[in-house]
Specification:
Protein name: DUF7382 domain-containing protein
CATH architecture of the largest domain: Sandwich
Keywords: Membrane, Transmembrane, Transmembrane helix
Number of strands: 9
Radius of gyration: 34 Å
Distance between the termini: 101 Å
InterPro entries: DUF7382 (IPR055806)
Number of helices: 3
Strand order of the largest sheet: 2-9-7-4-5
Organism: Natrarchaeobius chitinivorans
Structural class: alpha+beta
Pfam family, one: DUF7382
Largest sheet: 5 strands, mixed
Shape: elongated
Order of helices and strands: HHHEEEEEEEEE
CATH class of the largest domain: Mainly Beta
Strand content: 25-35%
CATH topology of the largest domain: Immunoglobulin-like
């Protein structure tokens, strides 16, 4: 094994700083804390940037829901009647060109009913309650226009059918 004097003589082109770095066994002591600090600062900067992006209107999505203009509770004898509705966003603004789909829930409905861009829906007379059932629901889903930032992720008010 060479001593530091022999190493210096063997390679005279090495600088003094290189020799001191080689002989310094403490050179790595500050590295872990520097990495932790860099990681914390990086995460903080990333969270600030993500928060700024979330506030930009064109990247955010707006929830839509259905508002019934009439009572959406029907007696079983009132089937084949027309219900008026509006598809609105969170701020209450009307959403045009949305498709509303009514399907069987706990009440029966042979085929789903589709309304594209309208504001009235007729519940067919084949909808109804099962035997020994006093109340049932028809589920409502909204398909927002495809060229918009609207989404329908929350549940919508259902149509309730009762047997009185």
């Amino acid at each position: 094994m060479r001593t530091s004097q022999q190493r210096t003589q063997a390679s005279p082109s090495r600088t003094r700083s290189t020799r001191s770095f080689e002989s310094d066994e403490r050179a790595i002591e500050g590295l872990p804390i520097r990495l932790v600090i860099a990681l914390v600062v990086g995460i903080a900067a990333l969270s600030i940037m993500m928060n700024m992006l979330g506030g930009i209107g064109e990247f955010s999505e707006t929830e839509v829901t259905i508002e019934w203009e009439d009572d959406h509770v029907l007696e079983e004898s009132e089937l084949a009647s027309t219900l008026s509705f509006s598809v609105v966003d969170d701020a209450g603004n009307r959403v045009e060109d949305a498709t509303v789909i009514v399907a069987a829930g706990s009440a029966q409905l042979d085929d789903p009913v589709y309304v594209e861009g309208g504001d009235e829906i007729t519940i067919p007379d084949d909808a109804g309650l099962r035997q020994d059932q006093n109340t049932g629901t028809l589920e409502v889903e909204i398909v927002p226009p495809s060229d918009s930032n609207y989404v329908d992720e929350r549940s919508n008010p259902e149509i309730v059918i009762v047997n009185r």
